[in-house]
Amino acid sequence: MLEAQALDIQYDGKTVVNNFSLSVQQGEMISIIGPNGSGKSTVLKAMSRLIPCHMGKVCLEGQDVRAMDTKTISQMMCILCQANQAPSDMTVQELVSYGRMPHKKWYQRLTPEDYEIIDWAIEKTGLSELRHRKLPALSGGEAQRAWIAMALTQRPKVLLLDEPTTFLDIAHQLEVLELTRTINQELGVTVIMVLHDLNHASEYSDKICVLRKGKQELFGTPREVLTTDTIRQIYHVEAEVAYSPVSGKPRIHVCSRAEASKLWMAN
């Protein structure tokens, strides 16, 4: 579905991502994790063609994205970055309607079919009562849902999310992640997202990619990746790992210094 092949990415002549490869199958939900500055957002932007690669290539459904026109890519793939901006006088419905632009010529107006898709996306994201509200009047969670609704109207096959829970409280973080999982499971949209919270990555991912210093360290299921040894090596902290009785996925408890000392003494 989407494949990165041996990517080297540079900023100002300095390599920040080295020999990165990732193959994502249709319908998968993938999280990219790693310490700050490890290249997570850079990889996501490169895969969406927002930034160029110095070496390697990205293929979408077998086609090199460099050979595809922007409109075709926009019809198939959508990226939401950490800080999304829109005019302050724009309403939720107006923002969501922009998701139809990749499917229109510059002179074409929205059709009844377009409005049906817009209404569907607004309803799917629970924004029906807020559709005429101006964007600055939304809470963080509501605003994030509005941007996701815009992505849904684009009807993408692949959705890239760069830290979608940043600046949100716990309840709204879970709200956004549950919505993302619904989009993945019910609509078959392939999702790749950058996350910081390891428990969120564990619970909401089929597979996890671990980056450190611009290199891929691990790629596998949450059980394969999220181990005490991996967390120690990647983040330089001690952690206890248990498993959810419901999902069977790892639950990580990062230890305080005192707790870590007890663990070291016990071992």
From TrEMBL:
* Entries under InterPro entries matching the protein: AAA+_ATPase, ABC_transporter-like_ATP-bd, ABC_transporter-like_CS, P-loop_NTPase, Siderophore_ABC-ATPase
Q: Which Gene3D superfamilies match?
A: P-loop containing nucleotide triphosphate hydrolases
Q: What SMART domains would the database entry show?
A: AAA (SM00382)
Record has Nucleotide-binding as a keyword: yes
Where is it mostly found? membrane
Gene Ontology MF annotations: ATP binding; ATP hydrolysis activity
Pfam families xref list: ABC_tran
Q: Where is the ABC transporter domain?
A: 2-238
Sorted keywords for this record are: ATP-binding, Cell membrane, Ion transport, Iron, Iron transport, Membrane, Nucleotide-binding, Transport
Which compartments does it reside in? Cell membrane
According to the UniProt record, one GO cellular component term is: plasma membrane
Give a GO biological-process term: iron ion transport
- Tell me how this protein sits in the membrane: Peripheral membrane protein
Please report the name of this protein according to its UniProt entry.
Iron ABC transporter ATP-binding protein
What is the scientific name of the source organism? Paenibacillus selenitireducens
